[in-house]
């Protein structure tokens, strides 16, 4: 059975990965901008769109008692702020929804087949915290949460892989068994090939360097160049500290906030929040309350 500490770890790992990774995301210009806007008035590290959209999903689920796509699309649009560093396509899409365009139309308006950015995967661990009793339901609800902004099959598959991995981790499944289950759910050649590489590395006890991960699995803003990298980084750091995970993800360069958020949420799902409580972050109490509310709605029996 998952513990409340794992729920806290999953949410705080995501937000801390995001906020700690954000100063290193992208090129010189993006890093300069983040230097100017990366702290709250009280000097706390700010998180970005990765955490904001995760909060939107959590609040929508908790308030509606189900995944309501119209409600979620409205929340995404209402929360949009340029200073959270949204992906370029998602920023345009959310502005269209904000002006009243239905999400079904907006989500196809920017990229011809819908976005394959990692913006659906980065927020997908929340689904695993809410839909813990049935894997098929988890997968179909994850797809519904993703397609509001990311209707491309690779973006949806990336979201499903993160949700499923989170689900298996909070339910104490071993890395070997997680990999076997992920293999059953990899539909695309892209993710399937990457998973085989991770499997081969782990079975031969090879520890890839950050450079090797970036080159082989990717470090970009697309789902297919960041989801498997993040899963791999999380697996490599399950028995190491959160700060080692962060510094490894930073060395991978590229989309550091999102890779750290996805690796961080998986690390926290496994290790809980105890060792990361003291790291300062924007709105920590609100984040913790969300984790507790998600945990409480699942109705896990209390320990004897
Ligand atoms: O996926 P998305 O919300 O971006 C999330 C990223 C994370 O790093 C966040 O931290 C934030 O910084 O942004 O935003 P999108 O713009 O939908 O997708 C991200 C990028 O993937 C796009 O800007 C494109 O460069 C690329 N991309 C595509 N390129 C060509 N054709 C996504 N879909 C396509 C496509 O269909
Ligand atoms: Mg971001
Ligand atoms: Mg950005
Ligand atoms: Mg990012």
TrEMBL record:
<feature type="binding site">
    <location>
        <position position="257"/>
    </location>
    <ligand>
        <name>Mg(2+)</name>
    </ligand>
</feature>
<protein>
    <recommendedName>
        <fullName>Crystallin</fullName>
    </recommendedName>
</protein>
<feature type="binding site">
    <location>
        <position position="258"/>
    </location>
    <ligand>
        <name>Mg(2+)</name>
    </ligand>
</feature>
<dbReference type="InterPro" id="IPR005502">
    <property type="entry name" value="Ribosyl_crysJ1"/>
</dbReference>
<feature type="binding site">
    <location>
        <position position="255"/>
    </location>
    <ligand>
        <name>Mg(2+)</name>
    </ligand>
</feature>
<dbReference type="InterPro" id="IPR050792">
    <property type="entry name" value="ADP-ribosylglycohydrolase"/>
</dbReference>
<keyword id="KW-0460">Magnesium</keyword>
<keyword id="KW-0378">Hydrolase</keyword>
<dbReference type="Pfam" id="PF03747">
    <property type="entry name" value="ADP_ribosyl_GH"/>
</dbReference>
<dbReference type="InterPro" id="IPR036705">
    <property type="entry name" value="Ribosyl_crysJ1_sf"/>
</dbReference>
<keyword id="KW-0479">Metal-binding</keyword>
<feature type="binding site">
    <location>
        <position position="49"/>
    </location>
    <ligand>
        <name>Mg(2+)</name>
    </ligand>
</feature>
<dbReference type="GO" id="GO:0016787">
    <property type="term" value="F:hydrolase activity"/>
</dbReference>
<feature type="binding site">
    <location>
        <position position="48"/>
    </location>
    <ligand>
        <name>Mg(2+)</name>
    </ligand>
</feature>
<comment type="similarity">
    <text>Belongs to the ADP-ribosylglycohydrolase family.</text>
</comment>
<dbReference type="GO" id="GO:0046872">
    <property type="term" value="F:metal ion binding"/>
</dbReference>
<feature type="binding site">
    <location>
        <position position="50"/>
    </location>
    <ligand>
        <name>Mg(2+)</name>
    </ligand>
</feature>
